[in-house]
């Protein structure tokens, strides 16, 4: 973090009234926060109300933003000199990401929808990666269970899929 | 008084807030809250096409998203050729008796975690008419596999033989299209049949049929006006919108002349959209068919490369636009590479086979008295066997590393790369 720069904090308020304070620069990872601040709102003590996102979810999003902001700031401070260290840091962040997102469907959907509404591309990507990972090697019905999908095919459609590719019902591992 | 009212109001507001919080906390997001464009991102991250098709069988909305032409296009370009599901390994009856269930085995690529043993079931092609053992696998392209009917009299001996019925199929969707041999071509000898890249054209790939395909069959005939010479003929077969097929063009090429005996001509490889046939006793002359222009020509390889020519020791391979020739000369495996632009050739790699194989399990002292044979060659590796006994080992072209204990060495014959993503029509079912 550059010295001398004033530290600006932003407050995000969840739909259930919980407020979270974080550095403005960390909050700027969200396109929605960026837009709000750009039109000159959200800097006041009332904070930025985040509709449809509960405190539980928002707290996770804030953790993600803080981590990624500090990682980016540290990388900027290092200069380009130490290539090896940069790669190591990147790997570390990736490991942190994987640990962070190691969740089951309920929470994961909450975070994905929240990240999408807030416009945090990195987090959307991370959630998508996790969902795709959860499908790996699973049969169609296992995918349904794992991801909470309701089977809405008619019996004729199911028969047609069964005829075309019966192997979709079996798993690969 | 006033403060008391305010306090009451505040208390009420707090209570309301708390109640709202409870409702909000209970109402969690589900898959229905994920918009289509985000769902696409999830599905693009899926690492294998078989997983993608499984996901497309989970519900109607997911199937619609996957079947979308632009989505499939992105999926293909994102995963590209890395999404090779595996290889069909064939068994050349010259080296070993064919397997009871057809002359091929599918081996999933090791880099692909999504496809394993269970998927082999759909890759076994057990849905083909007349049983899989009556067909011989001759080519793969994209998601399609081309097979030709074994001619009974010939015991299904590879390459040089009569033109027969063909079938094009897509293993993952278990669809196939039989191409009966046109009656006027029935008695022609065949130098080979190949699948060509079909122009990916959504507009013409009709609903339920299998995807567009183009098959070229290269036939052999007596030369029109040269005595004791032969000439090639090409026939292009192509699918049409309604799932049937037709002959697009047939051409007899009499400005290219070949030996009268077809046995002297052997298919030696496919490289950079050209097909190559080596010709014996013709001083390095090689028949070339350009897949794009469909024109035949004769190319002369320099003597340093072709001599001494022998159909068992000469293969042409491609890769990244570079043309290479793999040879066994005096039991040295040599890789020649054509230099860009000038057409000159250089010796790129060399391996002394008797020394390199020493110590491998099953290696006998009496091997390599005669020149070893190249069983098959592709961009990645070459399969070689000593002439004395079928004892196949592979040579990795990158490292020239010799391996004996490799699954692929169990199947002496060419291997065909198979990419498993089906074309959109197959997924269109149940979307409407």
UniProtKB/TrEMBL annotation, chain A:
Signal peptide: none
Family to which this protein belongs: Belongs to the SKP1 family.
Pfam family, one: Skp1_POZ
UniProt keyword Lipid metabolism, yes or no: no
Boundaries of every SKP1 component dimerisation domain copy: 122-167
Chain segments annotated as coiled-coil in the UniProt record: none
PANTHER family: SKP1
Taxonomic lineage of the native organism: Eukaryota, Viridiplantae, Streptophyta, Embryophyta, Tracheophyta
Pathway: Protein modification; protein ubiquitination
GO biological process: ubiquitin-dependent protein catabolic process
Domain SKP1 component POZ: 9-68
Functional note: Involved in ubiquitination and subsequent proteasomal degradation of target proteins. Together with CUL1, RBX1 and a F-box protein, it forms a SCF E3 ubiquitin ligase complex. The functional specificity of this complex depends on the type of F-box protein. In the SCF complex, it serves as an adapter that links the F-box protein to CUL1.
Protein name: SKP1-like protein
Domain of life: Eukaryota
Subunit and partners: Part of a SCF (SKP1-cullin-F-box) protein ligase complex.
This protein's UniProt keywords: Ubl conjugation pathway
UniProtKB/TrEMBL annotation, chain B:
Superkingdom as given in the UniProt entry: Eukaryota
Residues annotated as domain F-box: 28-78
PROSITE patterns (alphabetical): FBOX
Listed InterPro entries: F-box_dom (IPR001810)
Protein name per the record: F-box domain-containing protein
Organism: Zizania palustris
């Amino acid at each position: 973090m550059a010295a001398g720069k004033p530290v600006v904090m932003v407050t995000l308020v969840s739909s259930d009234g919980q407020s979270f304070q974080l550095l403005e620069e960390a909050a700027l990872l969200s396109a929605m926060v960026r837009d709000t601040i750009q039109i000159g709102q959200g800097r006041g003590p009332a904070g930025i109300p985040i509709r449809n996102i509960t405190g539980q979810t928002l707290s996770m999003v804030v953790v993600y933003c803080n981590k990624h902001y500090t990682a980016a700031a540290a990388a900027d401070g290092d200069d380009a000199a130490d290539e090896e260290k940069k790669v190591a840091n990147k790997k570390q962040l990736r490991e942190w990401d994987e640990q962070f997102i190691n969740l089951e469907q309920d929470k994961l959907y909450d975070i994905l929808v929240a990240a999408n509404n807030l416009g945090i591309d990195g987090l959307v990507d991370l959630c998508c990666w996790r969902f795709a990972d959860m499908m790996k090697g699973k049969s169609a019905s296992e995918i349904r269970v794992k991801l909470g999908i309701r089977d809405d095919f008619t019996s004729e459609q199911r028969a047609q899929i069964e005829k075309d590719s019966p192997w979709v019902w079996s798993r690969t591992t | 008084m006033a403060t008391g009212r305010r306090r009451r109001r505040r208390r009420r507001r707090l209570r309301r807030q708390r109640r709202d919080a409870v409702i909000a906390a209970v109402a969690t997001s589900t898959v229905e809250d994920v918009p289509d464009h985000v769902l696409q991102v999830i599905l693009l991250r899926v690492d294998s096409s078989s997983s993608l098709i499984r996901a497309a069988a989970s519900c109607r909305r997911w199937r619609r998203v996957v079947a979308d032409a632009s989505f499939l296009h992105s999926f293909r370009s994102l995963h590209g050729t890395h999404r090779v599901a595996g290889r069909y390994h064939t068994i050349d009856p010259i080296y070993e008796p064919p397997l009871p269930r057809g002359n091929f085995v599918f081996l999933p690529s090791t880099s692909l975690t999504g496809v394993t043993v269970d998927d082999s079931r759909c890759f076994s092609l057990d849905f083909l008419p007349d049983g899989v053992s009556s067909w011989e696998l001759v080519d793969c392209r994209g998601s399609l596999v081309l097979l030709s009917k074994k001619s009974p009299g010939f015991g299904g001996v590879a390459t040089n033989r009569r033109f027969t019925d063909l079938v094009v199929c897509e293993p993952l969707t278990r669809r196939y299209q039989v191409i009966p041999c046109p009656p006027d071509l029935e008695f022609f000898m065949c130098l080979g049949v190949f699948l060509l890249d079909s122009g990916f054209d959504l507009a013409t790939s009709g609903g339920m049929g299998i995807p567009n395909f183009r098959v070229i069959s290269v036939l052999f005939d007596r030369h029109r006006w040269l005595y004791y010479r032969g000439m090639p003929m090409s026939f292009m077969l192509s699918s049409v919108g309604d799932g049937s097929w037709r002959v697009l063009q047939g051409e007899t090429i009499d400005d290219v002349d070949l030996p009268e005996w077809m046995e002297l001509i052997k298919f030696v490889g496919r490289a950079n959209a050209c097909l190559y046939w080596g010709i014996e006793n013709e001083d390095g002359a090689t028949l070339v068919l350009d897949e794009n222009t469909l024109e035949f020509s004769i190319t002369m390889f320099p003597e340093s490369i072709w001599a001494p020519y022998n159909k068992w020791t000469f293969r042409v391979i491609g890769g990244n636009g570079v043309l290479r020739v793999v040879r066994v000369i005096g039991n040295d495996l040599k890789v020649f590479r054509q230099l860009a632009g000038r057409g000159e050739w250089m010796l790129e790699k060399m391996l002394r086979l008797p020394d390199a194989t020493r110590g491998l399990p099953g290696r006998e002292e009496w091997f390599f008295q005669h020149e070893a044979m190249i069983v098959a060659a592709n961009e990645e590796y070459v399969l070689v066997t000593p002439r004395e006994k079928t004892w196949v080992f592979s040579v990795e072209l990158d490292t020239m590393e010799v391996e004996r204990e490799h699954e692929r060495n169990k199947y002496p014959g060419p291997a065909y790369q198979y990419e498993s993503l089906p074309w959109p029509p197959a997924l269109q079912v149940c979307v409407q």
